[in-house]
């Protein structure tokens, strides 16, 4: 994946809102002149894909006032005091009532179009002992889908998990390697590292 250079230390904060931070700095151009450039820096975020014992994939259908409806994976931005794993556990509990017993790395990826990192995990070992605690500005519903439905969802216009979609498109849609993806999702004994 395309990697960007880190933001220079002399870049000044131009704007900040929730998970977005815009930094501005002078950058030298190819004609040796300088011009101001802005870079979007986004909070790191973490997501998880739970897989049931009967090979169903759990995704979420979300609705928010400004964004409308979309599909995605369970997860959210990582707060400064949390690790990616802590974020996953907290968001799974709040959004779905899920307790994750074990998780495995799925990918670590730069966030496309900005500076930041996305962490993806998968789990086959979870339960639902908690009540959900959703925010008043969101409606979240869990959906269990089969493999073919999942493939359709992650490339639809209503999907929001772009980093995971990139991995699937690179390894499955472009290379036509459906077996790779099926094994990745359903082979519980396989070690899942960065693909």
If you had to describe this structure to a student in words, what would you say it looks like?
This protein has 195 residues and is of the alpha+beta class. The chain folds into two domains: 12-42; 45-186, Alpha-Beta Complex (Nucleoside Triphosphate Pyrophosphohydrolase), CATH 3.90.79. The protein has helices spanning 84-96, 147-154, 162-174, 178-186, and strands spanning 12-17, 20-28, 34-42, 45-50, 57-64, 68-72, 74-77, 99-110, 117-127, 139-145. Strands 7-4-9-8 form a four-stranded mixed β-sheet. Strands 1-2-3 form a three-stranded antiparallel β-sheet, with no helix packed on it. Helix 3 crosses helix 4 (178-186). The protein is globular and about 60 Å long. The relative contact order is 0.17.
SSE inventory with pairings:
Blueprint: E1 12-17, E2 20-28, E3 34-42, E4 45-50, E5 57-64, E6 68-72, E7 74-77, H1 84-96, E8 99-110, E9 117-127, E10 139-145, H2 147-154, H3 162-174, H4 178-186
Parallel strand pairs: 4-9
Antiparallel strand pairs: 1-2, 2-3, 4-7, 5-6, 5-10, 8-9
Helix pairs in contact: 3-4
> Which oligomeric state applies?
single chain
Shape: globular
Main beta sheet strand tally, sense and closure: 4 strands, mixed
Write down how many β-strands occur, each being a DSSP E stretch of 2 or more residues.
Answer: 10
Q: Just name the CATH architecture of the largest domain.
A: Alpha-Beta Complex
Q: How many separate structural domains?
A: 2
Radius of gyration from CA coordinates = 18 Å
Share in β-strands:
35-45%
What structural class results from the helix and strand content?
A: alpha+beta
Give unreliable regions as ranges. Answer: 190-195
Number of helices: 4
Mean pLDDT: 79
